[in-house]
Every structure is written in structure tokens, then in C-alpha cells.
Amino acid sequence: MKLTEKDVRYVANLANLSLTEDEVGHMVHDLGGILELMDQLAGIDTEDLSPMAQVLYATGETATLRPDVERAPIGNDLAVANAPVSGAGYYKVPRVIER
Prior knowledge:
Elements: H1 5-14, H2 21-42, H3 76-79, E1 86-87, E2 90-91
Antiparallel strand pairs: 1-2
């Protein structure tokens, strides 16, 4: 399936982006190239490959991950304590999307 300008404009609208005509042309080319690469990846035969169970490897003392430690939640009052504006236990923020 070939990507069209209509497709790019639709996705840009979903993302609430305003693209110029030049940007739409670039996106058709760039996104089209990405989708072609994805089609190539989808065509690779992986039938004889076993799925990876873990992407990390045993690193011993050099492991960069810390152990999981269960902690009590901080609570709603403390969570909104530093909020510039809060109410009813929630952060209050200005409206950022208007349509």
C-alpha cells in the first residue's frame, strides 16, 4: 500500500499537528520509506527461530538494574503537595488541546 498525502494529513490531524505543504511532502516520502522497511521486516521468515525470553544477559556485579523493592504509596496529599494548582485531590492544569 502506497502512503498518500491524504493518509499523512489524517495522521497529522490525529496527532493535532499542523503541517505545511512542504512538510506533508517530506512526510509522505519519509513515512513511506519507514513503512516499506516494515514490510521488508514482515517478510522475513522467523519460523525456525525461538522467541527471546529475556533481552538482558547475566552481568553479575555489573548489572545496571536494581532489585525491586515494595514500598508504601506516597498518598494523594503528598503527591499534589507541590502542584501549583490542585483541587479535589487532582492536579489542575491549563487546557492544552482545543478543537
